[in-house]
Amino acid sequence: MDVKMDEFGLTHGRRDTVSPGPDRPLGPPRKEREESIYTFVWGNNPRRAELRGRRCRVLARGRMGTVLVEFLDTGERVTCSFRAIRLLP
User: Residue 20: is it exposed, middle or buried by C-beta count within 10 angstroms (0-12/13-18/19+)?
Assistant: First the structure.
């Protein structure tokens, strides 16, 4: 299958032949970020209030900002929004 460009400059065809380009910023490798320690900061309902302030680590990331976190004190696993956790300094 050939890779073709349309009038908008978009490529069509094999996906493995298209690179992200040199101007795309690259962040740290995902493995480094997942090993970081976060703290749960949301507390706007009773369940989140009991999670607030606890330290956790990210096990998996979803497509729409969802993360699976594991709390370090109990080993409990919870899915939540990535916006509910903050990276510890």
Answer: exposed
